[in-house]
Design a protein that fits this description.
heterodimer, A: 354 residues, alpha/beta, Peroxisomal Thiolase, Chain A, domain 1, five-stranded mixed sheet, 10 helices, 29% helix, B: mainly alpha, 47% helix, globular
């Protein structure tokens, strides 16, 4: 499905990372691999260190820390928030929505719309589409998009498919109306037949957590995990990304009329360096224009990786000028989505720690 | 090309003999998906190519001949 929005812009991006960094080398002994093989993997996949939330810290805590920072520094006012979107796979509770928890924590207006969206790797793009849809309403002038995930507690320490790359983080993106036309081209696709390629089998209503679901089992590849843990069928995910993402981006070029050479940066979801390099090669894009350094520095925090990539790689530059960005997310759902828009003159674009 | 492929495979998994004929590297557990990732990176660098992501399928790494065919398909000389 294609979308075109006008008179919308990103006003600022703030990424909030856990202060605690864990080195790949410190976890290698958990994996059923020789040290030499682990080091080869480190090079190919870009594993180095990842940020992990402290026990008890939830996604909403990271959002709250970031919101408080913005309020304290005069970068955002609570009373100007017309909608609060919380996109995550790690809510505080099954009920109520985490966006309502944050709404109450900061005493936001009663006519501020709160919405939780369960989405992962394409959560930034889906959140942007939802924010723009809301901004088409006359009553909505400013949407705060929260992408947040603290999934590390759900990953088995002995799962080398997922543990080396998982990261926890939150990002706050202010999406607002603007005078300029500033077209936002977006598209999104879904394939629910692959819904369980990335999943956490137990803990929901279908299979509640129990002593049985906590039993660790070895898979064919030598990973140990329980049904309470996140499971990723890495081969399936890789094939899905290589099959679906290049045509999606080619379609985005046609849809937007923007030539690939005119795109300043390709800010894609960050599964690992290997996968991103292959995507860049397939699309005929210089690898330097598609940063692949988020997993190696912070880990993969699902829908938070695109704003993290923007904050980390562009930072202040994006506060001084404007750039043509092509953004894409792909993964859980299965969902794949992309955005083409000019982003710039931001009021803030930085990373803070919590 | 075959000698070089065997050399790269042996560096990756020195415990196996990749020169033996008629052995399926995947079925015999000589290469897993992580080995394939590392192998593709090594082959890309060694031959100055980028193996297409759509070609990174287990059957293309089941033997030295299969890997050689994959390399030729992706422009290796």
């Amino acid at each position: 499905m294609d979308f075109l929005f006008k008179h919308k812009r990103i006003g600022g991006i703030l990424t909030v990372l856990p202060a605690k960094a864990v080195k790949f080398e410190d976890e290698m002994s958990n994996y059923n691999f020789s040290p030499a093989k682990c080091m080869k993997l480190k090079l190919a996949m870009g594993y180095n260190e990842h940020r992990i939330a402290a026990p008890g810290q939830t996604s909403s805590d990271f959002c709250a820390h970031g919101l408080q920072y913005l309020f304290d520094n005069g970068l955002l006012k609570p009373e100007e928030i017309d909608a609060l979107l919380f996109v995550s796979q790690s809510p505080d509770y099954f009920m109520p929505p985490t966006s309502n928890i944050l709404h109450g924590r900061f005493g936001l207006r009663q006519d501020c719309l709160c919405m939780d969206i369960n989405q992962g790797c394409a959560g930034f793009e889906l959140g942007m589409i939802q924010a723009c849809l809301l901004l088409d309403q006359p009553a909505v002038k400013k949407v705060v998009l929260l992408n947040a995930d603290v999934l590390s507690p759900k990953v088995s320490p002995r799962d080398r498919n997922s543990k080396p790359l998982i990261g926890d983080a939150a990002a706050i993106t202010v999406v607002e109306e603007c005078e300029e036309e500033n077209p936002v081209y977006a598209n999104i696709k879904m394939d629910g037949t692959g819904a369980l390629v990335l999943n956490i089998p137990a803990g929901g209503f279908r299979l509640p957590s129990s002593p049985e679901t906590a039993v660790m089992e070895e898979d064919a590849a030598g990973n140990f995990r329980s049904k309470d843990n996140l499971v990723m069928q890495g081969d399936e995910v890789f094939n899905f990304v290589q099959r679906e993402v290049p045509p999606m981006i080619e379609h985005l070029f046609e849809q937007s009329g923007v030539d690939r050479a005119d795109v300043d940066w390709y800010m894609f979801h960050q599964p690992n360096k290997f996968m991103l390099n292959k995507l860049a090669d397939k699309l005929g894009i210089q690898r330097e224009k598609m940063p692949a350094n988020i997993v190696e520095n912070f880990g993969n925090a699902s829908g938070v990786t695109v704003p993290t990539c923007i904050s980390y790689n562009l930072g202040e530059e994006l506060c001084k000028g404007e750039m043509q960005l092509c953004m894409a997310g792909f993964g859980v759902g299965l969902t794949w989505s992309s955005l083409m828009m000019k982003v710039g003159n931001l009021r803030f674009n930085k990373i803070i720690e919590y | 090309m075959k000698e070089k492929i065997i050399e790269i495979l042996t560096q990756l998994r020195p415990e196996f003999d990749f020169s033996q004929e008629g052995v399926d590297f995947i079925e015999e557990g000589m290469l897993d998906s992580f080995d394939i990732v590392a192998l593709v990176s090594e082959l890309d660098a060694a031959y100055g190519i980028s193996i297409d992501g759509m070609d990174i399928l287990p059957e293309n790494f089941s033997s030295v001949e299969a890997i050689a065919a994959l390399l030729r398909k992706n422009g290796a000389k």
